[in-house]
Amino acid sequence: MAGNPLLEGLMTYAPLPGIADEMVSPDGSIRPAWQKLLSALGRMDETELANRFARADRYLRDAGVFYRAYGKDTGGERAWPLSHIPVVIDQAEWENLSRGLIQRVELLEMIAADIYGPARLVSEGLLPAQLIGTNPEYLRPVVGVPPAGGHFLHFCSFEVGRGPDGNWWVLSDRTEAPSGAGFALENRVATARAFSDVYAETHVHRLAGFFGAFRDALLAGRQFEDDRIAVLSPGPANETYFEHAYIARYLGFMLLEGEDLTVVNGRVMVRTVAGLKHVSVLWRRLDASFADPLELNHQSQLGTPGIVEALRAGSVRIVNALGTGILETRALLAFMPTISRHLTGEDLLLPSIATWWCGQQAERDHVAANIENMVIGPAYSTRPFFDDNGRSVLGSTLCKNATLPVADWLAGDGARLVGQEAVTLSTTPAYVDGRLVPRPMSLRVFAARTRDGWQIMPGGFARISSGSDVSAITMQEGGSAADVWIVSDRPVDRTSLLPADESFARNLPGSLPSRAADNLFWLGRYIERAEGALRILRAWHGRFAEYADPDQPLLKDVSDYLKQLDIDTAEPVPTSLLASIDSAVFSASNIRDRFSPDGWLALADLAKTARRFHDSIQPGDDATRAMTVLLRKLAGFAGLVHENMYRFTGWRFLSIGRYLERGLHMTRLLRHLSGEDAPDGALDMLLEIGDSVMTHRRRYNVATARLTVTDLLALDPLNPRSVLYQLNEIKTEIEQLPNAYSNGQMSPFYREAMRLHAGLAVMTPEGMTPEAYRHFETELEKLSDILGETYLS
User: Fold this and answer.
1) Quick count: other Cβ atoms within 10 Å of Cβ 29?
2) What is the rounded CA–CA span in Å between residue 395 and residue 372?
3) Cβ neighbours of 181 (radius 10 Å)
C-alpha cells in the first residue's frame, strides 16, 4: 500500500525560523485546532489523498469556477487555483479577530460619514486636506448626499496577516467593491467535497448564516415589497465576473449591468421585457467613478446616467455608497490610530501595518532613516503592493538603484508616497510535490451589516504564496487560495439559506432584464445557426467522399449557396461556423447567473472540440464524422437546456430564437434546393439535412418529389423541422410573453406572428414558389426586428 505523504510530510515539516506558523505553535507542538484534521488525514494513503484532491478539483471544474488575470499572455478564463489543505483557526482566536474587525469597520463608517459630511477630521487637523481633496477616489458630486438608509458601508473585506509575534495585523481595507466572498463559498464546497467525513466531525462553522443575514438585511432595505434587488456588475470581462453571477444566483438577486438600468424621475429602473421595474437596492461590483457617466467619469461605458440624481432623491440604496473607495487609500492607514482615539476614545484592537505618509516632514525623515526596512508605494493607491513597474518597491532595492538621494526624492514627491513596514507573513501548510511545506499566507475576511449589526464571516479564504518569500505583504502572483475553517470544540449550527417555516412566495414573471432576454434570444439563434450549418456540411462532405469532385453539379450548387452564407466548403470546419459557436458562448457568458453549470460546460466543450477539428480534419469522410460528433455535442447541449431550463420568460426568448433561426434556415434552403432547376439529388439532400428521410418514406408512398418534400419540410405542422412547425411554436411562446395582449388587443409582435403563421398555414405545396419562399424569409426577418423593438429596446 502506498504511504501517507501527509504523515511523512509532518515528520519533516519545519516552520521557517522566526516566522509564525498556523499549524505549529511557537513551542513546536501542533495547535489543538489542527489535531482533528491531521488525525483524520493521517489515516489516508497517497491514493486516497489524490482521489480526494481530484474530487475537489472536479467540482470546481464542473461548476465552472474561474477568474481572469489581467495583463497575462494567456488571457481568458483561468481555473480557480485551490490549495487543498484548509487553514484551521480556533473559534476563540477568531472571535478576538472579529471584535477587532467590527471595531474597525464601524470606525471606517464614521470616517466616511465625516469625509462626505461635516469634514471635521480635516478641519481639526486629524486628516491632511491634501490627502482628501486631491484624492481621485474623493467624489465631489456626492458630498453632502446622505446615503439611503443612513449607512455608507454594508459589505467590506479586510486583508489580514499574522506577524512573527503571532498577532494579527490589517494589511489593507476593502470598501469600494470587495470581491472574494463567492470564491470563499466555492472554496468551502470544494474542500468539503474532498473531506466530507473530516469536515462533518471537525465542528467547522458554516458560512450560510452569514450570507443569509446579509440577504435579509438587503431585503429589509427595500422601499416596497416588490422592489428589485440587484448585483451591479461591470460585465463578463471583469476578472471576478464568475463571482458576481454566483452571488446573484446564490442569494436570488438580479444580475445587472449599467445598460440594464435607467433613471426616471429620480428612481432607478431596470429595463425588463415587461417594462420598467423599480430597483431600490444595488449591490455594486464596479468602481464608483464608473457608476454615473453623467456626473462622475464621463468616459465610463459601464454605468448609468442619473445614478447620482437617484442618490440625491434617496430612492436607491447602494452597497457600498459611492465614494467609499477613498477609505482604501493606503496613506489613510497612517492616521487610523489617532482618528480612532479621537472618534471612539479607543485604541485599535487590531492594528494596521505600520504606515507613514511622506507628505509631512517628520514622517519623511523617519522613512528616509529606515528605508532599508520599508516598502515604498503610491499614497493614493487602493491596491496591494507589487514589486514591479515602479509602483511599490522595497527600500533596500531603492537604495541599490536610486539615481537621486532618497531624502531628496521623498522631499519632491513625498505627498504622493507612503512608507510601510516590510511585513513578514506567517506560514501555513500547503501540499506541494507530495509533501507538506510552509507557505506564506494572508487572510481575506468579510464583514456584512445585518439587522443585528456587523457580522464577520466565520472563515473567508486564505491566499497562499507560490514560493517561500515572506517579505511581501500580499500573496505573490501564481499563488493559490485555501478554505479557512473556524473550528469549535462542540457541535455547530447547521445553518441554511432555506426559510425556517414552510411559507414562500413565487416571483411573478416579467422580471427578466431586456439585455438577458436579448442574449437568450441570440443564444438560441446562434445555436440553431450552427446546427443548420453542420447539417449542410455533413451532407456535402458525405457526397464529396463519394464523388471526390467538388465540381459535381450538386456539390458545386450547394457550395455556391453556402458561400452566400459566408461558409467555405474548402475548410472542413469553416471559420464562420466557429464564429457562430463562439457567438453562442459569448451570449451565454453574459447570462451566467441564468445558465446551469452543465449547460455551460456542454457549450464550452462544443466550442473546444470545434476548434480542435478546425485544425486537424480533412474533407470527405473525416469531415463527415467530425460533423456528426459536433452535432451530437450540440444535441447534448440542446437537450440539457430543453430538459433542465425552467419554463420562465427567459426560456421563451431562447426558444423563439431557435424556432426563428430554424425557420429562416429551412426557408432559404427550400428556396434554393427545391426549385425546378435544382440539380439531381437536391431533394434527397434536403430530406437528409432536414432529418426527415425516414418520415418521408412513411408519409408518402411515392418516390422523392418536389411537392412531397415541400409539403413535409415547409407545411407539415407535425414535422419539427418544417417551417410551419416553427411558426406554430413561435406563436405558442409569444402567447405566454408579458404584454402579449394590451387592453384586450394583440401586441404588434403577436399580431405579426399570427399573420405570418396564418399566411403559411393556408398555402399549398404548389404555391410554394421561390417568390413565396423569399416573401416568408423577409417576413421572418421582420418578425425578429419587431421582437427587438417590443421587448429588447
Assistant:
1) 9
2) 5
3) 23
